[in-house]
Design a protein that fits this description.
alpha/beta; Rossmann fold; 13% strand
């Protein structure tokens, strides 16, 4: 992946893209994904790790609910990562991550992820640049381990919102009773560090680029969900899966 400048990437769908038609396509994709997940679970040869990153109010929870919510819960798990607790801090930074790597047949979703340890930690100077580079190497090695030794397909999504859309969504949390539970006064302070976060993300995209990142325009939820559903569908479809037959009795 070449150098990515987020400021040059649109956060919205093309103007000529029809919203209704796109939502219909998404609905069909989700039906197809549901069928493919059953085959994926039964075959039990691959696993999928979905990494969802984005700034506050970029829509991570909505993606999990609207794209993955209709799948068989036996085959999907979600892990949300917040600030590490004292036990987690007493181990290496990947310790709390690796124990949630997906087993074969499973789709594991990370709501935030190991990338927080080279993002927010750098923005706030809790991790210096030299240590961050070592962590990026460890991340690359860990992702290669999953890919090469457990048939794990890693899909990394960055939900790309504009500063204006982020502020609008954060403001809704002050007004909408259904969204007030998400309100965190610190989110507005973090939003002021926008340029620093963009620089840290761009560094991660450049150095931790295997598997490559998917930059998802996310100002419009219907478009964001379509793009992610399409990527999930393509990944499952390209696995060339088959239902296992009945095993013959051993003599």
């Amino acid at each position: 992946m070449g150098e990515i400048k987020l400021s040059k990437i649109s956060t919205r769908a093309d103007k000529d893209l029809d919203k209704k038609d796109t939502k219909n396509k998404t609905a069909q994709l989700l039906e197809d994904i549901n069928e493919l997940q059953n085959l994926f679970y039964a075959e039990n040869k691959h696993s999928i790790l979905v990494v969802i990153q984005g700034l506050d109010a970029s829509g991570k929870d909505g993606v999990i609910r609207n794209v993955f919510g209709a799948l068989n819960p036996q085959g999907v798990t979600v892990k949300s990562y917040k600030a590490p607790n004292p036990e987690e801090l007493s181990h290496d930074f990947l310790w709390r991550i690796h124990q949630h790597a997906p087993a074969k047949g499973m789709i594991q979703i990370f709501n935030r992820s190991h990338y927080e340890d080279i993002l927010i930690t750098r923005v706030h100077k809790w991790c210096n640049d030299d240590d961050a580079k070592k962590r990026m190497k460890a991340i690359n090695d860990w992702e290669e381990l999953l890919t090469q030794h457990n048939n794990t397909h890693i899909l990394k999504f960055y939900l790309h919102v504009s500063p204006e859309e982020q502020q609008s969504r954060l403001g809704e949390r002050l007004k909408d009773p259904a969204k007030m539970w998400k309100y965190n006064e610190n989110d507005f302070a973090e939003a002021k560090l926008w340029d620093l976060y963009m620089a840290m993300y761009e560094d991660a995209f450049t150095i931790c680029n295997q598997p490559k990142w998917n930059i998802i325009p996310s100002d419009q939820n219907w478009y964001k969900e379509y793009l992610i559903a399409e990527k999930i569908y393509d990944t499952l479809k390209n696995l060339d899966m088959q239902y296992p037959g009945i095993k013959p009795k051993s003599s």
